Amino acid sequence: MTLKLRHDSSGYLTCEHVSVFYLLMLNSGIMGAYTYVVRGGVFCNAQTANFLMLGISLGEGNFKHALFYFIPISAYVLGAIASEILPTPIKHYGLFRWDTWLVGFEALILFIIGFIPTTVPDPVVQVAVNFIASMQYNTFRQAEGIPMATTFCTNHIRQVGIGVAKLVRKHDQKGFHRGMEHLGMIVCFCVGAFLLSVFCKFMNEKSIWIALVPLLILFYRLAHADLTWEHDLLNKKPAGH
């Protein structure tokens, strides 16, 4: 009952809590480091680098190489499309919200990836990570009213700077607090990358399994909320959708 009252007073769903976004960011740091260190030296959480390399390849006249970058870009687009279409017209399936199912699906994919040997071409794993990273990014959008990206850090860095500027110029404690929430996201991302770099030395392709720790904790939290105090709110859309 205490948890239900806390939810009612805050107005936010469990999937919108900042701590949920911290776990997602920890997982993203692990995924990004994994594809870079273990699976081909690329970052699959976002697509800026792929578009950059696409333009460079076209400029150099290397059209065959340019076509390669359409593979991860297309996987990212498909992930966004899937995460937009699947929850429509309702935001839940059976006992759980779409957000909960997605976390479980992401954990399953990363568990399977751990069984794929490094002898398999890297793009196979890269495409899978592109797809789930896009779905995560498009599904989890706001943490307690603050727009958040859960797969990369660029905007978080910007928001930290804005928060500090607001404190210095206007003594805006609320704006500074928002900036510190973004700093927390960056720290979680870096911790995830650190953990992967340590574990990959002796776990190799199976090091992605350390991402299952935050994901399974998150799945338990979301599923428990869906089955108990938020059961009557399964049709409620999270902010930003």
UniProtKB/TrEMBL annotation:
Pfam families: DUF1275. The chain crosses the membrane at residues 20-37, 66-86, 98-116, 182-200, 207-223. Keywords: Membrane, Transmembrane, Transmembrane helix. The keyword ATP-binding does not apply. Coiled coil: none annotated. PANTHER family: SLR0142 PROTEIN, UPF0700 TRANSMEMBRANE PROTEIN YOAK. This is DUF1275 domain-containing protein. It comes from Anthropogastromicrobium aceti. The lineage of its organism: Bacteria, Bacillati, Bacillota, Clostridia, Lachnospirales.
